[in-house]
Specification:
- The structure holds 2 protein chains of 2 kinds.
- Chain A is α+β, with helices and mostly antiparallel strands.
- Chain A has helices at about 40-50, 90-100, 105-120, 135-150, 165-185, 195-200, 220-225, 230-235, and strands at about 5-15, 15-25, 30-35, 55-60, 65, 75-80, 155-160, 185-190, 205-210, 210-215, 240-250, 250-255, 260-265, 275-280, 285-290, 295-305, 310-315, 320-325, 335-340, 345-350.
- In chain A, a hairpin with a 4-residue loop joins strand 16 and strand 17 (about 310-315).
- In chain A, about 25% of the residues lie in helices and about 35% in strands.
- By secondary structure, chain B is mainly alpha-helical.
- Chain B has a single domain (about 45-175, about 205-285), classed as MetI-like fold.
- Chain B has helices at about 1-35, 50-55, 60-95, 95-105, 115-125, 130-135, 150-175, 180-185, 190-205, 205-220, 225-230, 235-245, 250-285; strands at about 35-40, 45-50.
- Chain B has a two-stranded antiparallel ribbon.
- In chain B, helix 10 runs antiparallel to helix 13 (about 250-285).
- The longest helix of chain B is centred in the N-terminal third of the chain and has 34 residues, at about 60-95.
- Chain B is globular, with a radius of gyration of 23 Å.
- The relative contact order of chain B is 0.13.
- At the A-B interface, strand 6 and helix 2 of A face helix 8, helix 9 and helix 13 of B.
């Protein structure tokens, strides 16, 4: 239905460059997540999309047409705010019907559409309550209903789950994703929570200091990050410095790392002997006895039993530490010398900082 | 529990004492005085009567003055609201030094003594004063206007001094409206006017209500400005009351006038509060 193209968007404040050339695309019906720490520019990007901020440069195309000259009240985008931004002086039904009332629809039609959307987000029965009389999770769903009832061209969500407790967060997260997919609305979703981003998105843009560090599918940003920053932000990660990097094919390298010689995949285009790091996710490592099967050997320095799994930290003799998850019944204790086998298909070579 | 209750009473004691000595006692005294018979050689006599009230309520002249006082205060309040709202809006957006500067500007009428301020108005509004001369120089009028000793000048001068009492509570209410509410309504298709009408205005009501009450009560009770700028031809309740109390020394009759004025004002404030109660309750987030 709606495609969006953000082209090298720039936004600066008096003494602060908030966006330094952000480029993104969203295909019709996709949910695109902007992921990053606070101050990385993810909210600013969303606010430029919504029309609350005017960028200093670049362009935003919606269905091929620039919307920069369209004021926010003509963009027909639904926005869900972190603090919900419900009108405190209007009831739940009035909040949801507000946009319809502005369109001068008949009372009957407003009532029908409000009723339908309230059923969709499971709020039936709360029509006449004021926002302060309902729970946080319910307020969140009112905010969502209020955006959806207008059948927006684009749905913009700014950390919609940040103020909910963990249990509710999970519930509302799936509700958002279901509704977005059912209605086929293209959506942008801002969050600093990587698991939220991974679980919900079609595409994730990991942002860093006003730029997009990587824009790819959740699988790619997790397994094939372009730089250490992305790998760090998308989950638990181990890094080992790679020595004598040698390209042996397109995106394939032979490296010497922590005393072992291995051949692995990596970011394409790394030069011979380039400074690079090996990314090893904890789940791609397994504990084995020392000997042939082991790629590395090391000493267990920390070991924590978590019920479903065992979390270990192992110091390598060449320097560097590896965190890994082992099956819970694996008999290791601190001080043991162990071997570590790595699943080579899940190891990734990348530069420390993308060029 | 007992201790904290005692503590609460102890903390409230100074305020209660102050209220009792400077409000309850004088009002009781005033009410009692209003039922006294007039004295011949003293300000009041020994017996009690309701003749002062029957005299006031039976005389169209006093009804007229009461009406003038209440409607003048109404005009002052309305104009104050209209003038103050945009100022409060700007103030609520201002930050840092600009905000401090604006606060100072807004409070400036209160920093001038009441007599100085009113004599200032007399000079400004005089027949050959700067206001008339400027208007003539601009060609707007041909002959000087008689501005001094008119009801309009009284209203203008009262609006001037009461604006801070309206601006500050409205500014407070406006500052409490999160920006995201404005953005949310805009994203739902509201024009700037609709955002104002549907969101800003109702949510600033918790500031409008106290501002209106404050200015109305102050305007009804204002004495110096009507006395100096209103002239001898038109009377307002406060000037009348002071005349009875200090001019002709009719304390009981003056007290009765004062009680009538107070009761009317309280009645208006109560009705206004009742009418706007629901709106205010809802907007109190």
């Amino acid at each position: 239905m709606t495609t969006v193209e953000v082209k090298s968007l720039r936004k600066s404040y008096e003494d602060f460059l908030a966006l330094d050339g952000v480029s993104l695309t969203a295909e019709s019906g996709q949910l695109v997540t902007l992921l990053g720490p606070s101050g990385c520019g993810k909210s600013t990007t969303l606010r430029c999309l919504a029309g609350f901020h005017e960028p200093n440069g670049g362009d935003i195309l919606v269905d091929g047409e620039s919307i920069l000259n369209v004021p926010s009240n003509r963009r027909q985008f639904g926005v869900v705010f972190q603090n919900y931004a419900l009108f405190p002086h209007m009831t739940v039904a009035e909040n949801i019907g507000y946009g319809l009332r502005l369109q001068k629809l008949s009372k009957g039609e407003i009532a029908t559409r409000v009723f339908d959307v309230m059923k969709l987000v499971r709020l039936t029965g709360l029509e006449d309550r004021l926002p302060r009389e309902i729970s946080g999770g319910q307020q969140q769903r009112v905010a969502l209903a209020r955006a959806l009832v207008l059948k927006p061209r684009l749905l913009l969500l700014d950390e919609p789950l940040a103020n909910l407790d963990a249990r509710l967060r999970d519930e509302v997260r799936w509700l958002i994703r279901d509704l977005q997919q059912q209605s086929g609305i293209t959506a942008f979703y801002v969050t600093h929570d990587q698991s939220e981003a991974m679980a919900m998105s079609d595409m994730v843009a990991v942002m860093k200091a006003g730029r997009v560090a990587q824009f790819a599918t959740p699988r790619e940003i997790y397994q094939k990050p372009t730089e250490r920053y992305v790998a760090d932000f998308t989950g638990e990660a181990n890094f080992l410095t790679a020595q004598s990097v040698k390209p042996v094919g397109e995106g394939r390298y032979a490296v010497h790392v922590a005393g072992a010689d291995i051949e692995i995949d990596g970011v394409p285009g790394l030069a011979e002997n380039a400074a690079a790091e090996l990314l090893l996710r904890p789940e791609s490592l397994s504990l084995v006895s020392t000997g042939d099967a082991a790629t590395f050997e090391g000493e267990v320095i920390k070991c924590a039993f978590l019920g479903a799994s065992l979390h270990c930290e192992i110091a390598l003799p060449e320097g560097g530490r590896l965190k890994l998850t082992a099956p819970p019944n694996h008999a290791v204790t601190e001080g043991d010398r162990v071997g570590i086998a790595i699943d080579l298909s899940h190891v990734w070579l990348m530069p420390e900082v993308a060029p | 529990m007992m201790r904290s209750k005692k503590l609460i009473w102890a903390l409230a004691l100074p305020a209660l004492l102050l209220l009792f000595v400077f409000m309850i006692l004088p009002i009781t005294n005033m009410v009692e005085m209003s039922f006294r018979t007039p004295g011949s050689s003293e300000p009041f006599g020994d017996d009690y009567t309701i003749m002062h009230y029957t005299r006031i309520l039976g005389d169209g002249y006093y009804w007229g003055v009461l009406w003038r006082s209440l409607t003048t205060a109404g005009m002052v309040t309305l104009l104050c609201l209209i003038v103050s709202y945009p100022i409060a809006w700007h103030l609520s957006r201002a930050k840092g030094f600009k905000a401090v500067f604006l606060y100072a500007c807004i409070a400036s009428p209160l920093m001038t003594g009441v007599l100085v301020r009113n004599f200032g108005w007399m000079i400004v509004a005089a027949l050959n004063g700067p206001l008339n001369e400027s208007l003539m120089a601009l060609g707007i009028i041909e002959r000087p206007l008689r501005l001094l000793f008119t009801q309009s000048l009284v209203i203008l001068a009262l609006v001037h001094v009461f604006v801070p009492f309206m601006v500050l509570p409205i500014n407070n209410a406006l500052r409490n409206i999160p920006q995201s509410l404005t953005e949310a309504s805009a994203s739902m298709g509201a024009s700037r006017y609709q955002v104002f009408r549907d969101v800003i205005l109702p949510l600033s009501f918790p500031g409008i209500q106290p501002g209106v009450i404050l200015v109305y009560v102050l305007a009804v009770a204002a004495y110096v400005t009507p006395a100096l700028l209103g002239g001898q031809m038109v009377s307002y309740m406060p000037t009348l009351i002071i005349g009875e109390l200090t001019g002709t020394f009719q304390w009981p009759f003056g007290s009765a006038l004062a009680i009538v004025l107070s009761c009317s004002t309280v009645l208006i404030v109560v009705v206004f509060t009742r009418l706007t109660w629901k709106l205010n309750e809802r907007a109190r987030a």
